[in-house]
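ping. complex inputs:
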Amino acid sequence: MSTPIAFAFLAASVLFIVGIKLLSSPKTARKGNLVAAAGMLIALLATLPLAHASAVNAALIGAGILVGLVIGAVGAYRVKMTAMPQMVALFNGAGGGAAALVAAIDFPAHGTQITLAIPMLFAALVGAVSLSGSLIAFAKLEGHFEKPVTSKVQQFTNAVLLLAIVSGSYILLVFGPRSDTHGLGLLIMLLVLALLFGVSMVLPIGGADMPVVISLLNSFTGLAVAADGFAISNLALIVAGTLVGSSGTLLTLSMCKAMNRPVTNVLFGAFGKASTENVSEIASGGAVKPIQADEAALLLGVARHVVIVPGYGLAVAQAQHQVRQLADELAQRGVEVSFAIHPVAGRMPGHMNVLLAEANVPYEQLVEMEAINPQMSRVDVCLVIGANDVVNPAAHEDKSSPIFGMPIIEAEKAGTVIVLKRSMGKGFAGIENRLFVRDNCRMLFGDARASLQELVTQVKGA
Amino acid sequence: MTVGVLTFFVFVLAIFLGFELIFKVPSMLHTPLMSGTNAIHGIILVGGILALAGADGVVEQGIGFVAVVLGAANVFGGFMVTDRMLQMFRKKK
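pong. complex structure:
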């Protein structure tokens, strides 16, 4: 690698570092993304003089980039805000797949050198796990196999797969490279096993935990890319991949912390497995009390302080603009309105912030869970829109509940709780919500968007 | 010190740098940050381009082509989707 090109890769690495730093503060986040993108452009341009390609291969490279660009752009711009997490999962899977393929191409030629063979094999296997795991995460978030797929042999299957992969890798590294064809056959077999492992690792994990899984697979892909960097001795790949790998690991841990669950619990203890025991069923045996929009509007209109708790239902109903209208309308009448954001509301941390920001809800109205809970007993009306598990008092009261110990927004302490809900279905964790049968809780059934529209009209007319 | 050892140095330092960089990030930024770092590992496109450039025979070309397509989708899609998310954090004027 000539010096100018090496410096270009160094510049790219520095821009990635600065980009990630800027991304971690709300004010500079967008700039951070652009800085990282600029680094990527430099790295790609610096690659061109390195690639001594035949005319055919050069044409293939151009065509491949173009196809990938179109797929990426269409995916990124056509996806609805609600489906953002799935899109990230898909892009991550693509990266993992690419990392695995890059390693697989080089393996037959350079696999004989043990210092190259180890990182190559690592990149191929981890990349493959990331690919299939991300696809399953995508399918889960799209709503396929809603219930965690669990079986008693799950842990056993995973252990056997892992053992097979490790021992296969050992055989390949020790004996494989000497005979070309055997090595290749074994490599393909290992790749298939790695793909299977990705599937069986993610399948039993509940949909509510998918953000954590995607974050973990994101750091997996990062590590696979770094390993590829070792294999083709490219420092930019090593630095970028490692940064993603380590920051992704930390991010995964802090997401788990926000849910007050150890990461092992997420990965190995499927949500809702030991959960729907009859204890919580009995506890919520009371009757729910419906409310009509006009009465709800009246309650809201005379309140002094209203707290709105948004959840995934708001995102599904695309009701972010309606909720802002309602907030504005109430604010005009002198009602103090705040939005209480649970760290894991929606399908991803920050999901609600993104959604409300899209509807131009002022930043100052968004309050974090820790800040709102002490005030909750002085709040007149708490309006829960399509949120369920994050306001379920079982997290405090019911030791047998799978969400026990998760911090919640203490909606039940407000004077009146009005819950906007499509039906009496369970939340994503698949458990009953005893909030709904509390004396101070009223249910406004229907599509969140239509209900909110009705509330806006009623508040205006009152 | 050999090149290999130096490379390993860079690798270990990058691990710590990654931890330091995102220490204490507000939870509202978890998703954009995940998405942004997701785009950064799209640098595998560089590896894909180099692999396809040296590809020999239809099989290698085919695999290399798929790698480039996947890598390019990761890079371009990743940065665009992150930008779209962050666009919405703009302050109300």
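The radius of gyration of chain B is 18 Å.
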